[in-house]
TrEMBL record:
Gene3D superfamilies in the record: 3.40.50.11590
Source lineage: Bacteria, Pseudomonadati, Pseudomonadota, Betaproteobacteria, Burkholderiales
Putative heavy-metal chelation domain sequence ranges: 129-254
Domain of life where this protein originates: Bacteria
Species assigned in the record: Rubrivivax albus
Pfam families: DUF364 (PF04016)
Protein name according to UniProt: Putative heavy-metal chelation domain-containing protein
Length: 280
């Protein structure tokens, strides 16, 4: 399959990083406990590099968690070259792509740490959308924890989903399978799952009217440059402060607490990938 442009651009940026400095090897892949049947809570794995850098990836696409549990060892070993692993982000296999995406995020964190870049903390968990009464906000992916906060502000929400069983309208939230319903939204909030399942670009094509286009979620941690170039106005991710403590909470299925903080990155906050490389 042909990978989307932002995928190939991200991998090219990582290749440039590898050309400037030796990269740490893969240390381990950490998985969360079994997800509850039918649960809507997000679950993520973490790929750890030898320098402590972590990259997160969503594991609830289809049977990804079960596939990772059964077969991850055949695709990833301690000591592997993370740049080679990251190439899997372009794969048509969900399993390989999930691991590759985590490697992309881990290498991005590695560069930021080496270059001394720390993103600003998020002012809220809504991607700084500032929901207003009466407006309709688009949401791509059923980001359950955020819905009550949007509707409490008086906004209506249109959620674009892939799951037919979620379609319907209740409590100010309309779930649809039709991406064209995003065309009337001036604010759109999308989960990082778009980056994993390679659906970002077709969704962006429906968001030409959006003045604020926000990607949020723990797995939003790859190179920002290709995303800002495509009109994303804010990236809201998770910045791990204490890798060891975070891994403990992830594998136990407990809240991360102070082991991470919510970060928000706008184009004006980002010096650029090339600028970070020049700091090495």
């Amino acid at each position: 399959m042909n990978a989307p442009g932002y995928v190939t651009e991200s991998l090219a940026l990582l290749q440039a990083f590898a050309g400037r400095a030796p990269l740490p090897r893969v240390k381990a892949l950490h998985l969360p406990p079994p997800p509850p049947p039918g649960g809507m809570r997000g679950e993520f794995c973490a790929l750890e590099l030898e320098d402590g850098s972590l990259g997160l990836s969503y594991v609830l696409l289809g049977d990804t968690w079960a596939q990772l549990t059964a077969h991850a060892a055949s695709h990833l070993q301690a000591g592997d070259d993370p740049l080679v692993v990251a190439q899997g982000y372009a794969s048509g296999s969900t399993l390989v792509r999930t691991i590759g995406f985590a490697a992309v995020n881990a290498l991005t964190r590695c560069l930021c740490t080496r270059a001394g870049f720390v993103p600003p903390s998020s002012r809220d968990s809504l991607g700084q959308l500032d929901p207003q009464p009466g407006e309709t906000i688009g949401m791509v992916g059923h980001f359950t924890p955020l819905l009550p906060r949007l509707t409490a502000a008086g906004a209506q929400v249109v959620v674009l989903e892939l799951r037919e069983d979620l379609v319907g309208e209740r409590d100010g939230v309309r779930v649809t399978l039709d991406a064209a319903e995003l065309r009337g939204c001036r604010k759109v909030l999308a989960t990082g799952t778009l980056l994993l399942n390679h659906t970002l670009e077709p969704v962006l094509a429906q968001c030409a009217a959006a003045e604020r286009l926000v990607l949020v979620g723990p797995s939003v941690g790859g190179p920002p440059d290709p995303l800002f170039a495509r009109g994303i106005t804010l990236l809201g991710g998770s910045w791990v402060e204490d890798p060891a403590a975070f891994i403990d909470t992830l594998t136990a299925g407990t809240p991360a607490g102070g082991s991470l903080r919510k970060a928000a990155l706008a184009p004006a906050d980002w010096p650029g990938w090339d600028a970070l490389l020049r700091r090495l």
